[in-house]
Amino acid sequence: MAERSDRHVGLLGWGSRAILAGLFAMVALVAAGRSYGALTPHFVVSSTVVGAEQTVTISASKPKADDAVGRVQIFVPTGFTLNAPGVGTGVGKATAKVLMRDIDPSTELSWAGTVAAIAPTDPSLAYEGSSCDTSQHLAAWMVQLNGSKGTFSFPIFVDATSGTTASLGPYVLVACFRPSDTAAGTANRSPDGNAVDSFSVSLTPFMRPTTAGAYRWRSLWTPFTAGTGALNTAANVEAQSVVNIPAGQIVIFGKKSTLKAHGKTVFRVLITGQVREGGETVGPVLVTIRHGSSKTKLVSLGGVKTGSDSGFTKFATLLTKSQYFQASANVLGQDLGAAGCQASFGSVPCVDASVGAGRLVSGMMLVKR
User: Fold this and answer.
1) Are residues 287 and 312 in contact, defined by beta-carbon separation less than 8 angstroms?
2) Could you give phi then psi for residue 231, rounded to 5 degrees?
3) Separation between Cα atoms, residue 42 and residue 240, nearest integer Å
4) Peptide bond between residue 284 and the one before it cis (omega within 30 degrees of 0)
5) How many other C-beta atoms can be found within 10 angstroms of the C-beta atom of residue 82?
6) Are 145 and 111 in contact (CB under 8 A)?
7) Which class for 306: exposed (0-12), middle (13-18), buried (19 or more C-beta within 10 A)?
8) Where does 170-322 show beta strands of DSSP type E?
9) CB 99 within 8 A of CB 108
10) Please, which residues have CB within 8 angstroms of residue 83's CB and are 6 or more apart in sequence?
């Protein structure tokens, strides 16, 4: 059989050999490319304002088939300010998709929970503080998740940028994960071999810029070296997201009329307005109207879509006391792909960019009784 096989190979022509050589070369290139193609992350940051509360939502994800991620560094651009709360205080909410290798290595499970401030010197952070983020920390936040299979947590450190990263913004958030593919029983292994494929945190300590413009958030992703629990910094990749603080406005007007209902005098308000961005009309978009007897206690009156002129109209009926009104509209996000990246870390490839959703908010309108 060996002789027949050798003779068969010997019958290959030069053209066939060239094809084989080309295929082997392609395989070699794919293998070599794995050093920076092992992670293909997607990263989206959005900023919203609801009443007096501002929220920054950071969503980070990668395909399940990618290498396990060990660290995600998120650089907060200049213009966003941070009012870090004290230890034990809530910071926001979180969701995640987690692969539990020890239980079901093929199925991602959905988890949800909260983010709370924790002391940077808390003993539970000793491993992450020595292997993932050794910088001096301004704060530390623990993401505590609940799912059908129990609980799971991971920390996010808040550090000041320095040196070459200072130009990227004042802060860097560092999400740290434990290895999931080391042998069961290995020290500092992730519980149940949990590997985080995506997470989203909605954080309230950040205040967004007051100046309109495009603010670029950068994330630097580091995978684990398979089976070792060590970070593979040679395989770093970058992903970005642009938060647009719109140079736009919503104008809102009200016209009051009175009527009788069940023997009482009540009034109805005709609410009108227009959405504009950069001096141009915008539409159609969904405008949400909120109202209440206090500026800080507004509730939803419902939504209405703008017309071709970006105008909107809505009635508030059977009101018996003075009311504040405010209108808001979302500006939709989009995926820019690799072409929208502006590489920030030298030879580290930037593989994806996005534009996060934003929100326009009107001034407060008071309609007196």
Assistant:
1) yes
2) -70, 135
3) 8
4) yes
5) 16
6) yes
7) buried
8) 171-176, 194-203, 206-207, 213-223, 237-245, 248-261, 264-277, 280-281, 286-292, 299-305, 311-319
9) yes
10) 205, 206, 207
Residues 70, 182 contacting (CB under 8 angstroms)? no
* Amino acid present at 139: A
What DSSP designation does 222 have? E
Domains in the chain and their CATH numbers? Answer: 39-245 (2.60.40), 248-332+360-367 (2.60.40.10)
- Non-local CB neighbours of 294 within 8 Å, separated by 6+ positions: 324
Task: Please say whether the beta carbons of 226 and 217 come within 8 A.
Answer: no
Rounded Cα distance, 47 and 58, in Å: 9
Contact 308, 283 (CB under 8 A): yes
Per-residue pLDDT tens, the chain, 369 aa: give them. 333 333 333 323 333 333 334 433 333 333 333 334 489 999 999 987 765 678 999 999 999 999 999 999 999 999 999 998 999 999 999 999 999 999 998 889 999 999 999 999 999 999 999 999 999 999 999 999 999 989 999 999 999 999 999 999 999 999 999 999 999 999 999 999 999 999 999 999 999 888 888 899 999 999 999 999 999 999 999 999 998 886 667 888 888 888 777 777 778 889 999 987 655 666 688 899 999 888 888 899 999 999 888 899 998 876 667 889 999 887 778 889 999 999 999 999 999 999 887 777 888 899 887
Model confidence, pTM = 0.74
